[in-house]
Design a protein that fits this description.
By secondary structure, the protein is of the alpha+beta class. Helix content is about 25%, strand content about 40%. β2 and β3 form a beta hairpin.
Amino acid sequence: MAYKIRVHALNLVAAATVLTASPALADDQANTARLFADPGVRQMTLATAQQSAVVMNNPCPNAQATASTDVAVFQPLVFDAAGQLQTGIWRQQVTLAGCGVTRTLNVLGWKQAGQAIAMGALLPGGTHTDVLLQRDAIQQVDQLVKITPGATEEGCAREYVADTRFVDREVPPAPGPAPGGKSPPWREVWTLQTCTKRIEVPIRFIPDATGTTITAGPQNAVKVTPLAK
């Protein structure tokens, strides 16, 4: 089974240096393939995906989970001479199909020197954000939802991100990357779900030299739809 490794923009230079300068590139590729084909790693990935809020709020005992071979690398995967992973951070997608719905789930995996592999569930869907951007963006989304007429639901303690959708990356004649930015701005739509409502929030991400500016909204573009009963 071939694994497609994509270098994330946050660490593009460092990762590219490792991949192009190392004379053991073939060994690195073989080690990577073995890592993600390992039954223990695969089972850990699938189990972590099940911890996503959208799965826990929409249980489907008979759903079939499949780990993708498309892996996005946030920090280069470094192996020792024996082919054992020493350090690295990556994101792997899991497709969960069942109960008439197919979902894309995202799992963040990481390995620190001297420690075991650890994993955590990221937001579902096609978002291009990493874990830090997700943390910052959801705060803005929550604030916008609170002031959007018809979006809040009194007496409902349930609100979670049900899906994320990448819309597009801005290209000419739109403005290019901000000074120092690693990529042009891009847009996404994040879908929240409460007890009886589906809320779609547009978000714009603008990378610059110091990080990424996140803008949720505008408010009149937030779409609130009652859930089918």
